[in-house]
Amino acid sequence: MNVLFATSEAVPFAKTGGLADVSASLPQALAELGHTVSVFMPAHRCVFHSGLPLTNREIDISVPIGNKTMFGTLWEGRLPGGDVPYYFIRQDRYFDRETLYSRQGEDYADNCERFVFFCRAVMESVERLQMKVDVLHSNDWQTGLLPAYLKLMYGSRPRFHDVASVHTIHNLAYQGAFWHWDMVLTGIGWEHFNYDEMEFYGKLNLLKTGVVYADAITTVSPHYAQEIQTEEYGCGMDGVLRFRKEKLRGILNGISTEHWDPATDPFLAAPYDIGNIFEQKPRCKADLQRETGLPERSDLALVGMVGRLACQKGLDLVCDTIPTWVENHGVQYVILGTGDPVTEMRLRKLAETYPQNVAVRLEFSDSLAHRIEAGADLFLMPSRYEPCGLNQMYSQIYGTLPIVRNTGGLADTVLDGETGFVFENDSVHDLNTTIWRALQCFWEDRDDFNRMIRNAMRRDWSWKRSAEQYVALYEEIR
Ligand code: ADP
After folding, report:
1. Ligand 1 within 6 A of 307 CB?
2. pLDDT tens digit sequence for 388-424
3. Which of 3, 276, 318, 408 has the least C-beta neighbours within 10 A?
4. Which has the closest alpha carbon to 362: 405, 293, 305, 403?
5. Which domains occur in the chain, in start order?
6. Could you tell me if 9 and 23 are in contact, meaning their C-beta atoms sit under 8 angstroms apart?
7. Is the beta carbon of 262 within 6 A of some atom in ligand 1?
8. How far is the CA of 313 from the centre of ligand 1 (A)?
9. Closest to 91 measured CA to CA, from 41, 43, 143, 128
10. pLDDT in tens, 359-389
11. Is 364 in the pocket of ligand 1 (CB under 6 A)?
12. pLDDT tens-digit profile of 345-356?
């Protein structure tokens, strides 16, 4: 099968979140199952700084945007050791920017135009490259227009005649909602700006567009697929999703077992596997304590956290609970993340108040993320919602028991009392009760704690399994 995978980010070319991890791993896993995959993404500035070689394909693409024509060029690269071509649409006016979607918390004013251009350029590139495509797989709002272009504009051309489309929702909270006049930029007629198609509460909504026009919709965990059909988690889109529920499926993300393997992890002071974890992991803990300036104490529980500092991630609950555990039980925390300025300030303050117990790093550091996953005893993820979540999977593979809320992919991947600790409500009370349960186990019942660590390390989230489910879906809709 020939799969075109369109995304706005893929690690190590560009990354703001889990979508980038998926866009690096899934295409390769599909290729390993024998399919021909091409990935398209914008040539963001950081793509050229990734250190990977890129070739200018010397192909110009012209794209109508409203009543003007914009031009792009096509570049090509590969992931290290990979054989899937990554095509980059270059138009510096849109993509040569320091960050991907926003600056200092403000979305770029021309985000709609940027991704209208990208989506149409993808369709035009297929023609220019004379590519054979069986399935067009788009992701999140940035590529939500692709299923619509396929159905409304390009489907009648021979090359696109038999192409089926899948749209994946990685996070329903980001919908790409723009004022209605941006409809003009898309080149799609106003007759499609209505309740059943591209309009959503008076705005042009690109995620809804993908959901409405795709032949199948997926999201990144079975639990989240159910949740988003409810008012509580539906971000206003639950009605649309319920309407299309026959076409909606949850496929759990895998993880990159190459990049995340404690036995071969180059960032760790003492790599380990299930056979020697109890000798080696304490060295990783001491190393993390040294690196972050915390006292080297093996007896104190060390709690780690890595992620975007967004409301979604429940950081406010974490900040509310830290003083109790630090003051009464000497618990240590290492927190790595960037995001919401208010949360950053709260965390900085906690680190100042408790320098012996709380280390905060407000930066993006892949290597420190690895050392936290290995060096902590417990990993916190009290998310309000979590489409899939990757860190709780990494932490289990690293034998660091996660404390998670019973939502989305967290609910699908953490087994309470077996591989981690799960709590129900997003309340300080529920979080504290569960931290207490985890600490009791850590302090008083080390045999049970170690049994859970071994269980967690044996879990298998290789991409092969997820890729097989995508292939089964592609075959159903062709
Ligand atoms: P989301 O996609 O909602 O941000 P996920 O858990 O699915 O959350 O994926 C986040 C990814 O980004 C993980 O690989 C995580 O380790 C990484 N990450 C997030 N923030 C940081 C950071 N400050 N430093 C290093 N890695 C980070």
Report:
1. yes
2. 999 999 999 999 999 999 999 999 999 999 999 999 9
3. 276
4. 305
5. 2-254+464-477 (3.40.50.2000), 277-460 (3.40.50.2000)
6. yes
7. no
8. 11
9. 43
10. 999 999 999 999 999 999 999 999 999 999 9
11. yes
12. 999 999 999 999
